[in-house]
Amino acid sequence: MQDNELRNEIEKKEVLFQKLFTKYQYNIRKVPNYINFDAFKDLKLIFELYSEIFHLRGFNYNKLSNIKLEKIINPYSASEKKELISHLVKALVKNGNEEEAKSVMELLNKIEIKYYWENIKLKNNLLINSVKLLLKIISYNILVLLLFLTLYLFISTLFFCESKFECLAILDVKKVNITEINWLNNFGNLLTYIFDLDSKMEVIPLNFYGVLLLVFQKSFLILILGNYIVKEIFNKIKLK
Question: Which UniProt keywords apply (predicted)?
Answer without folding.
Answer: Membrane, Transmembrane, Transmembrane helix
